[in-house]
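Narrative summary of target 7.
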Amino acid sequence: MELDRRRFLRTATAGGALLAVGSALPASAAPGGFPDYRYVRTLLKPEQLKYNPTGEIIFPCVRGVYDRLSSTIGRYYLYYAPHDAPGGICLAYGDSLEGPFTEYPHNPIVANEWQPHYSVKHVSSPHVLWHREAREMWLYFHGDNNTTRLARSKDGIHFTYDKAVLTTSMMPAGTTETSYARVFRHHLPSRGARYVMVFMRNTTANHRDICWGWSPEGRNWTFDHEPLIDHAKVGAVNVGGPHLLHKNGSTYVVYNSDKESGGNILITEVGNDFSRRNHLGVFYDSRSTAPENGRAAAPAFGTDRGVPYMIYEAGERLSGVIAMARG
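Modeled conformation, tokenized:
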């Protein structure tokens, strides 16, 4: 019998107990012991932004900069982007993860043309990493969908181009997209790595999976050619927007399914060496009401004064907002 994808996606296992379809996860039973995040408010809406070329924004990444950079315009920098052409990596800043966030007046801080390095239809999906050794903010972004690039900054606002770090040519034949990458400091001694990347891969079959790679310094990468999260094994048509989390001595990947497959944020335990594939089900159950309207995606995480937050896309793809949930 064919798997009922929505039933699978709205079911989670915890300690062998099966949670009823559509039931809310109590805080004590959140997969992996993570907080039970609840929507609080919308942080950014396209129509309120000065730089708004396409009426849509995606893929937030929030970073505390108050204790890392010598001069800042806010305690927290929130990076985001339109996706459709021309896209553009954008910045908002604020003093709390509760908001409000103020749009940086000179967006985009990275455009779809950066001579002599590239000229593409669009750039999008910013993920910024505080690189401990370099003491820089490292920005990973895609443009176009077949290439993930790296730029570096001393202040989190003005970036210097570095290089392309991932292209479809680095993955198996039939790969059509390698994008929506996030990079994290994570030690893998057996691989000589201190950084890992999780990203979305599409193929000529037009089903999106989560893949991963590892690097000694965050610039030069080796990639596993097998999916880290296979869409079919979690009952989805497509998965994307991955983020790495750690809890209770283990490592997890959270990621979104497409709206056709439930529109929720899911979680899989991969273990500290990335050898596990323990699919735990729903991490965050999207609400049918606004602003989510049945879809939550591309989560990023932060802690402000001891309170955990999730910043994420809410709403239909390419017509949503950036929202905030509190744990």
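Residues 62 and 78 are 4 Å apart (CA to CA).
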